[in-house]
Amino acid sequence: MRQIHTTLTIATQGQSLNECTHEIADWLGDSGISDGLLTIFCQHTSASLLINENAAREVPGDILRWLDRTVPEGSHYAHDDEGPDDMPAHIKAMLTGNSLTIPVAAGQMMLGTWQGVFLAEHRARPHRRRIILHLLGE
């Protein structure tokens, strides 16, 4: 049994879903571990991780619009230290989650046919987000 980890930095362009499936798969392929369990962790409270459809171009926009309708900006939040999108970003991150666990077999994530891993940027301005990849296996 072995374990390894690394940090990926993803540059975002403001509120967006940023697919990082290929970067993760590349690291996984170089890991030397063929079977195990991959944990992905986002080190931020205003960004999050999700697995969703990565084939239809409309899906990311639909998800972002739903999140904006569900958690709108406004003066009804006490916390606005970094602007009007600050507290809504924290709530969106809470709803979508900060970690994923994905089984690995034959050196590949066991994702479904149309599934991809996304970093969700919930802030309006660009950021550099860090996600930790931790692989346990053999």
- Return the structural class: alpha+beta
Strand content: 35-45%
Total number of domains: 1
Task: Give unreliable regions as ranges.
Answer: none
- Tally of strands: 8
Which labels suit this protein?
138 residues; alpha+beta; 5-stranded antiparallel β-sheet; 3 helices
Description of the structure:
With 138 residues, the chain is an alpha+beta fold. It has a single domain, classed as YjbQ-like (Jelly Rolls, Sandwich). It is 25% helix and 39% strand. The strands form two sheets. Strands 1-8-3-5-6 form a five-stranded antiparallel sheet, with helices on one face. It starts with a strand and ends with a strand.
Task: Explain briefly what this protein structure is.
The protein contains 3 helices and 8 strands, in the order ββαββααββββ. It is an alpha+beta fold and 138 residues long.
Topology at a glance:
Layout: E1 2-11, E2 16-19, H1 21-30, E3 36-42, E4 47-53, H2 58-70, H3 86-96, E5 99-105, E6 108-109, E7 115-121, E8 128-137
